Amino acid sequence: MLVLSEKEVRRLIDVEELIQALERAHVQFSTGKAVMPVRLVVPLPEIKGRITSMPAYLGADKALGMKVVTYFPENPKQGLPTILATVFLYSTETGKLLAVMDGTYITSIRTACVSAAATRALANPETPVLGILGAGVQARAHIRALCRVRKIRAIKVYDLVEKSVQSLIQELEPEVGIKIEPVKTAEAAVRNADLLVTVTTAKEPILSADWLKPGVHINAVGSHRPDLREIDAATFQRAKVVVDSREAIMAECGDIILAIKEGAITEDHIYAEIGEILAGKKAGRKNADEVTVYKCVGVAIQDVATAQFVYRKAIERKIGVNVEI
């Protein structure tokens, strides 16, 4: 069994190659060549935490695995992240455990890489202005990934915590070579943006349809529980809506679930899964003024495909520690 640390996982991931691997994974899923249940969540009421398991099987890639995620809200007091993740990869021939690797970085980068794939498939070719709501780990990962698929000339970032925005700017501005502007309101980040990313933990909408520029593409990432909501119902009414998994969205996504409960849209308003677009089963953007939304909750095929990608690279480059169990 190969054990890979977060540092080793980071060394092994090439963003452009991973985008392609995740595109293949979503095509497999949306064409019936992958098996993936909705995530299983076990609440831990005494500590207001939870443990989640996310298994998946990708037949064409011979990838079988599971991510386990824990959420312990008091962890920062002990100098630990609130969310920790581990990915287990198994042989599709014997069921033997092949690898155990850190899943925390995998979670952030795989999410951003699928957003990049969705951006390539749905956004207008010219998207010079990127607006970001949120300034955490996912905001950083998305800036890095989106700069690989679009020529971005300006970035505007809004977060309730100004220090988080300044930290992001100091870290990323020299790396990506693009001016990153801190803005004081969500509206300021959204107006005139050609490309938007929402990566917050908001419980009420922080993005209004009235602010949207015609033709904008939105990667809506932050709302991944039925009680969380970043985007107002009017935005979904106006937009072509593409998702990572219909089943997962209808079980977990507050943005969509609450818009349906309010009668603003129906489940049929979900136009396609991103895998259907990438497979050519459905068309993407129909014109330059169409508003498009890629709404994701994060699914296990992304973790398993990324783990398989990392494992193969590790074997090629002889990285990691082999352990007998």
Q: Tell me about the biggest sheet?
A: 8 strands, mixed
Task: Tell me the CATH architecture of the largest domain.
Answer: 3-Layer(aba) Sandwich
Question: What is the alpha-carbon Rg in Å?
Answer: 19 Å
Query: For this structure, what is the CATH homologous superfamily of the largest domain?
Result: NAD(P)-binding Rossmann-like Domain
Number of helices: 11
Assess the beta-strand content as a share of residues: 15-25%
Query: How many strand units?
Result: 16
What do we call the CATH topology of the largest domain?
Rossmann fold
Under the CATH scheme, which class of the largest domain?
Alpha Beta
Task: Characterize this entry briefly.
The chain is of the alpha/beta class and 325 residues long.
Characterise the protein shown here.
With 325 residues, the protein is an alpha/beta fold. It has 2 domains: 2-106 and 301-322, 2-Layer Sandwich (ornithine cyclodeaminase, domain 1), CATH 3.30.1780; 123-298, NAD(P)-binding Rossmann-like Domain (Rossmann fold). It is 37% helix and 24% strand. The chain has 11 helices and 16 strands. It has helices at 6-12, 15-30, 104-122, 137-149, 162-176, 186-190, 233-238, 246-252, 254-261, 274-278, 300-317; strands at residues 2-4, 34-35, 40-44, 49-58, 63-71, 83-90, 97-102, 129-133, 154-158, 179-182, 195-198, 217-220, 240-243, 270-273, 292-295, 321-322. Strands 1, 2, 3, 4, 5, 6, 7 and 16 form an 8-stranded mixed beta sheet that branches. Strand 8, helix 4 and strand 9 (154-158) form a beta-alpha-beta unit. The model has no long low-confidence stretch (mean pLDDT 96).
